């Protein structure tokens, strides 16, 4: 286990799951809404804490109620908050995320009305206590001094830097880091067609640094210090459920495996596998459980649109109702909202394939199969709790 300090942004993510990407002048209804802790460094530290490391964050918060929510969320993720710089004025940064249900991709709108982390605040931290420092490539003006301090006072601890976007002066920071993560957004903005082109251009200026450029489904290019460029293909992900935080997961995976003694190539390959597993689930909670082979709960070929299948599960709800709907599967927690009893408590769940409804066996509440909403009965307009599932190419159904 290592002590890791992350310096960067922490935000509240407000996530809306929508049926497809938005178009101009379009109105959409979100199927799910929830709030979670976000921010590149915050996400990476959360993954590292799950991998067994002791993590701390150096960031800023406002003096509003959202700041309390943010700090409490970081604590719940086992991220130490001792080095947070708090401002009385300003709002806690917020990101509004639309998650495309068709492909798991996302669009993000950021809102920030808060000062950046100051050099003076960072300078008071006893950074020698940490085994690794990871910087987010933002706040360039103050980051220059922070990296200078780190380079001066650290004897052996690695310094990593994430370069996600082109920012004025960010190239001047590169020589201060031992490990640099470049995103394809940065590379594309600089005119490079792939990660290999970027690293070929950068490597002569940074011969002693480990360099990585990620490129989504094209994989990642890497160049170890004084080494040659190589490529690691992307892991196959089917279906993609949620890409939010995948890059932060990758960065954490690389850091973890380098601390464990792996080579850069080994670390990148393992981190790619971890990031791929993250894309198969929502959020970052219980990420390591996603690495264990999942067990299917049923197969779509055993389902019908004229009857339900009730299955018990090891994880998630104790019992799930499955039914074929159009070309896919609908899944609901086996619980009627009227009196919190299983839908099949008295006898089997009746299905009307023409009206496309299911009926609770206890008090004759009728639910639309499409969305689980009660359209007749004692719990009218309430809804069954939907369960996220995915179907692989063999037809096996898995909980998400």
Q: Level of helix content? A: 10-25%
| Helical stretch tally | 8
Percentage of β-strand residues: 25-35%
Low-confidence runs: none
Structural class: alpha/beta
DSSP strand count: 25
What is the overall silhouette?
elongated
**Largest sheet geometry:** 9 strands, mixed
Q: Please, what is the average pLDDT?
A: 91
Order of the strands making up the biggest sheet: 6-4-1-10-11-12-13-14-15
The rounded distance between the terminal residues' Cα atoms is 30 Å
Radius of gyration: 24 Å
Give structural notes.
The chain has helices at residues 40-50, 65-76, 119-123, 140-153, 184-189, 195-202, 246-259, 264-278; strands at 3-7, 11-18, 32-38, 54-58, 60-61, 79-80, 85-86, 91-100, 106-113, 132-136, 159-163, 179-182, 210-214, 220-223, 230-232, 298-299, 309-312, 319-325, 328-333, 350-352, 357-359, 366-368, 374-376, 389-391, 396-399. Helix 7 runs antiparallel to helix 8. The radius of gyration is 24 Å and the shape is elongated. The protein has 8 helices and 25 strands. By secondary structure, the protein is of the alpha/beta class. The mean pLDDT is 91. Strands 6-4-1-10-11-12-13-14-15 form a 9-stranded mixed beta sheet, sandwiched between helices. Strands 3-2-8-9 form a 4-stranded mixed beta sheet. Helix 4 links the parallel strand 10 (132-136) and strand 11. Helix content is 21%, strand content 28%.
